[in-house]
Amino acid sequence: MSTEHDHDDGDAGRTGTFGDYGGQYVPEALMPALQELEDAYERYVLENEDGFMDEFRERMHDFGGRPTPLQRADRLSDRYDREVYLKREDLLHGGAHKLNNALGQVLLAKYMGKERIIAETGAGQHGTATAMAAAHLDMPCEIYMGRTDVNRQRPNVYRMRMNGAEVNPVEAGSATLKEAINETMRDWATTVERTHYVIGSVVGPHPFPQMVRDFQAVIGDEIREQIREKAGRLPDSVVACAGGGSNTMGTFHAFVPDEDVDLVAVEAGGSSLDIDESEGLAPNSATLSTGTDGVLHGAMTKLLQSGDGQIMESHSVSAGLDYAGVGPELSHLVETGRVTPANVDDEAALNGFHRLSRLEGIIPALESSHALGYLEESADELGDLVVVNVSGRGDKDLETVLEETEKRDLEAAPDVEVFDG
Amino acid sequence: MSEYDSEVEAAIRENHPALITYITAGDPSLADTKDYVEALDRGGSDLIELGLPFSEPIAEGRTIQDAINRALAAGTTPEGFFELVDDLETEAPLLVMTYYNMILQYGDSEAPRASEEASGQRPRAKPDVRPFVERAAEAGLSGIIVPDLPAEEAEPLRRACDDNGLDLVFIIAPTTEGERLDRIMSHVSGFAYVQARLGTTGARENVSGATHESLERLSEYDVPKAVGFGVSKGDHAAEIVEAGADGVIVGSALVDIVASSDTPEAAVDRLEAKARELKRGARSGAETVTIDPEDAPEPEQP
């Protein structure tokens, strides 16, 4: 019946899929731009044309501060009675792994002859990284950010503006990350011919999930080399937090072929794993653990959605994990069993935050604190040699942590009521 | 049956130049939508697109985003939408315009949800387009438009539409060129939806230069072409038809009427009048191309 169509053999006409996931579900107007980007990605990133990757690595070294250390966490190792190493992405310029991707994409846009950069941001970490990269490479830059996030992440709004970026508040819906992505896609659909959209995670239409992963893969590449040097072998398990999944894929990618290395993606369990369909609310962002397959923001992936297909408002104490979707490659790796999905709730993450601050002198981002919360809960399952990715530093989260800690009786927390005294 | 492949194509060819109107179903309620659709039908619409609201409408400008939010807040569901279509009896064939995830999830309401799955084995529920397409056909819809489904990803939906006698209408953007344009134009089903300008939906003051360029570029393809994105006035309709379009598509200007009318009755009257203005405009544009003294344009009403 359908013999007149071009591609009867399954996926032959589709590109950029990971098993059942991925693809390019975008308005027609963007398809030529995705093809142009795919072409540039193959030439510059995969084939190092014009020395693109050499320049990228050099800038990540001089401007970004790579490589970041892999540090043995002495007191955590004692506490859990195994070797625990921390990958210190919190030491990257900007305070998080986000720069790896932002600098890569802004540089690529420059090689492509684009004249303008746009990006979405939730908590503001991707926005600040993009603003820095754009200032560094002298490109005009506009950031879309939900009004709610603008109001609760003031310092990041100032940082972006200091770097010369324009910050456009988005008023629609709950005015957070999801709405910011919608609005950035609308801008891109209008200005696509001269503008590049720097997506902040391994989400969106092909080639973004693959390309962002490749820019972030330096994390896992370095870990592999560093752990061999320090421990003489590959780890038994690697743990990273997962929202959209860019630090997760960046950390895991090099280890995917190493079947003996367990890979654990720790999501935000929020306050509960239940969904309130009538309110359109999921008080978590545990997409890999609880989501169902669907299409959001250009890709088939796992989603938090109602039975009708409306996307839920997700929630996490950590703004950077607060997203109703997840990268399609992670969905695939979970589906095939290569990556184990896990989740810890807000409280476990807050305890993880305080514990690392007190025991190791490192204030981690609330995102990364989820991985540390999981380590506390499940260290026994992780083998003798564990690597945890500390994806970012927690300075940006201090106010939230103080507020959330006061509400709770947390075992690992200091008495925050005396902080102001 | 007509000489054309589909009801949708016949509606455009036989009523040339055709008026295609859009409103968002459920804004402000499905009962009102029924009255509005009937008004658009009386006003001379040759095809009517009904928007089935999705929470992330990335192709829409502010006007239709707001309408979608009102419809969702009013509790509009796919099943309610189909029941509305079951009840509608219009002369104009009806199309549904919605986002791909709504099509994928329909009929999957038995799928396990997070609350049931959190601790257990997760049974696999693969999304499938067929339940939606079958229900659409049963309700009497003639076609589907999906703004976030490019031709490259459309194979499963195209097959389901073929099997159920529905048209799957594709959008041609100002950036669609070369081989891709050829490939999409060779698969046109119903009509080619020509996007007048880059960007999102929304009423504009002028017909864009991109519209003229697009119609010029498409003139060699013998398929019905209808132009949308930004069309809001009779004069626009005239200019677009004169430039070679077989139809005009108007959405945001009508959604604006729904949003700005004091009562549903007032909205009904204004929608019908607006449809007449647009249809008249389209006809006058056609006359500039082919003089037909029998059908002179009526004077513009204030």
Q: Within the largest sheet of chain B, what's the order of strands?
A: 5-4-3-2-1-9-8-7-6
% residues in beta strands of chain A = 15-25%
Structural class of chain A: alpha/beta
| Structural class by SSE content of chain B | alpha/beta
- Tally the structural domains of chain A: 2
Overall radius of gyration of chain A: 20 Å
How far from one another are the termini of chain A?
77 Å
- Sum up the overall morphology of chain A in one term: globular
Q: What is the CATH homology-level superfamily of chain B? A: Aldolase class I
The total of beta strands of chain A comes to 14
Describe the protein.
Chain B: Residues 292-302 have a biased composition (Acidic residues). The complex is a heterodimer of chains A (421) and B (302). Chain A folds into two domains: 19-62 and 98-211, Rossmann fold; 70-95 and 217-408, Rossmann fold (3-Layer(aba) Sandwich). Chain A is 40% helix and 17% strand. Chain A is built from 16 helices and 14 strands. Chain A has helices spanning 31-46, 52-62, 74-80, 98-111, 125-136, 147-152, 154-162, 177-191, 208-216, 218-231, 246-252, 287-290, 328-335, 346-360, 366-378, 398-406; strands at residues 17-18, 21-22, 70-72, 83-88, 116-121, 141-146, 166-170, 195-197, 237-241, 262-270, 292-296, 299-303, 339-345, 385-390. In chain A, the strands form four sheets. Chain A has a six-stranded mixed β-sheet, sandwiched between helices. Chain A has a four-stranded parallel β-sheet with strand order 7-6-5-8, with helices on both faces. A two-stranded antiparallel sheet of chain A has the order 1-2. In chain A, helix 5 (125-136) links the parallel strand 5 and strand 6. In chain A, helix 4 (98-111) packs across helix 9 (208-216), helix 5 (125-136) runs parallel beside helix 7 (154-162) and helix 10 (218-231) crosses helix 11. The longest helix of chain A has 16 residues, at 31-46. Chain A is globular. Chain B has one domain: TIM Barrel (Alpha-Beta Barrel). Chain B has a nine-stranded parallel β-sheet with strand order 5-4-3-2-1-9-8-7-6. In chain B, strand 8, helix 11 (234-242) and strand 9 form a beta-alpha-beta unit. In chain B, helix 7 runs parallel beside helix 8 and helix 12 (252-260) packs antiparallel against helix 13. The model of chain B is unreliable at 109-124 (pLDDT under 50). At the A-B interface, helix 1, helix 8 and strand 11 of A face helix 3, helix 5, helix 6, helix 8 and strand 6 of B.
